[in-house]
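User: Let's play a game. I give you a shape written as tokens, and you guess the letters that built it. Ready? Here's round one.
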């Protein structure tokens, strides 16, 4: 029994090491990993060797490690296996065709906002986020909506933990961010203007299932092309698509 427990702890530590790599910290030395995980250097080297043998991390320059594309493939496989993605796909494609813009489906994974699926714009406007890639934890409209289902205390704890981990701080500070989360959660939609990518404006709406926020649909647009009429149109369409997906999720799960 003790051997089984030791094996489970080792597997958990190895997974924690994978999760230590984030968008804000895509590379790390063995010492960085030891400090982040709170484990001794010999253990770090053992887990690093195991993950390298599995092709999940590799060593770059100056003894710093990074995730391999095999991890990205795991993320894509997870997306394909998620029923929400399958149900969201037609709604996302319809929205993209109506607006001529890309559409993102974002969800929370272990306390991190993640881009789960993306439908490209007909114009091929390139976005900085690939499916399976974490989003900034404290910036953008999507994270404000995804935090909407938490209590006030849980939201504060989330923000403080994100800041302690080195996440980019909110554009307008902690207090304003928490107020914006409360406002956006109440109305079910949010907008952001150059919070993540320069020159990008985005409208986002919450997707619900069983009364809880489970995802968000986001439409990022080139900011300089947007006027008031266009912004209102994008907000209206993304809210409708999110409501339609909410209805689909309710019907699909009910069966």
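Assistant: Ready! My guess for every position:
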């Amino acid at each position: 029994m003790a051997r089984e427990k030791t094996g489970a702890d080792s597997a958990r530590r190895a997974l924690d090491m994978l999760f230590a790599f984030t968008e804000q910290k895509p590379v790390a030395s063995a010492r960085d990993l030891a400090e982040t995980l709170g484990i001794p250097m010999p253990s770090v080297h053992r887990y690093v060797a195991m993950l390298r043998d599995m092709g999940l991390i590799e060593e770059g320059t100056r003894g710093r490690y990074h995730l391999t594309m095999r991890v990205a493939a795991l993320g894509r496989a997870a997306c394909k296996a998620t029923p929400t993605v399958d149900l969201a796909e037609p709604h996302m494609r319809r929205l993209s065709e109506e607006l001529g813009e890309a559409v993102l489906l974002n969800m929370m994974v272990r306390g991190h906002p993640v881009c789960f699926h993306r439908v490209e714009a007909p114009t091929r406007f390139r976005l900085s986020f690939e499916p399976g890639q974490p989003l900034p934890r404290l910036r953008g409209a999507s994270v404000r909506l995804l935090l909407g289902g938490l209590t006030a205390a849980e939201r504060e704890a989330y923000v403080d933990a994100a800041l302690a981990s080195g996440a980019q701080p909110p554009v307008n500070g902690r207090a304003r961010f928490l107020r914006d989360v409360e406002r956006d959660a109440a109305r079910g939609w949010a907008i952001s203007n150059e919070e993540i990518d320069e020159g990008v404006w985005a409208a986002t709406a919450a997707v619900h299932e069983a009364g809880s926020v489970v995802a968000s649909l986001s439409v990022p647009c080139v900011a300089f092309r947007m006027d008031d009429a266009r912004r209102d149109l994008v907000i209206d369409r993304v809210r409708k698509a999110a409501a339609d997906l909410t209805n689909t999720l309710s019907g699909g799960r009910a069966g």
